[in-house]
Amino acid sequence: MRDHWQEPVLVLRLGDTDVGFAVPGRRLDGTVAGKRLVRRFFWNVLRGIGGAAVVVFSLAHGALAHPFGREVRVTGPAGAQALGLLDELRRTKAPWLVCAPGGVALVDTGSTYLDPADAPEPKLVWEARKPDAPEFGPRGRTLTWPDGSVFRFPLHGNTEDRHLRAHFEPPDVIHWSGRPASRG
């Protein structure tokens, strides 16, 4: 992407993509409300049976699980600009967020579950350039679009968190090529 955009980039592996939505016209899971109602009915019946089994199993082992809990990470108006990225994100196997001063992209490296050597080539699945690109907020791990829609992105663990912290310092100063060496 650095060569494609001709500017420095910050690449972050995204974590759990099973995020919740608070956008009019979308269900909590991000699917379009009012579509595929028959399939949705049977899916909910099956999910209810599975969820009940998880709760009974967790109670039998001294804990209480919430199998349908979903943290809301996407907010915005109906038809939010964030939905383009999020619809693509839901289809990815191994998503990476690429941020640059002039844009944001989503890259999928495919599943590497069995053998990383067999992974497909990285594929650009979504891209936005200024002025339509969202603003990257490293402190809150947010992407904010011009229409006010916001995606609070989850990172893939402590390694990605450290990588992000190595490139930014409060108040939202991003060192695209890494932090300058301290003089001493």
Relevant terms:
alpha+beta; 2 domains; 4 helices; 5-stranded mixed beta sheet; 184 residues; 11 strands
Quick structural overview:
Keywords: Membrane, Transmembrane, Transmembrane helix. Helix content is 24%, strand content 23%.
- Broad structural category: alpha+beta
- By DSSP, the count of extended strands is 11
Describe the sheet with the most strands. Answer: 5 strands, mixed
The Cα radius of gyration reads 19 Å
Q: What amount of the residues lies in strands?
A: 15-25%
- Residue share in helix: 10-25%
Average of pLDDT:
80
Give the overall form.
globular
The number of helical runs is: 4
Instruction: Give helix and strand order, one letter per element, not per position.
Output: HEEHEHEEEEEEHEE
User: How many domains, in number, for the residues?
Assistant: 2
Gap between N and C termini:
34 Å
Strand order of the largest sheet: 2-3-9-8-7
Which regions are unreliable across 5 or more consecutive residues at pLDDT < 50?
A: none
Overview of the molecule:
The chain has 2 domains: 132 residues, no CATH class; 38 residues. It is globular. The chain is an alpha+beta fold and 184 residues long. 24% of the residues lie in helices and 23% in strands.
SSE layout and pairings?
Blueprint: H1 2-5, E1 10-13, E2 20-22, H2 37-60, E3 72-75, H3 82-89, E4 95-100, E5 103-108, E6 123-129, E7 135-137, E8 142-144, E9 150-152, H4 158-165, E10 168-169, E11 173-174
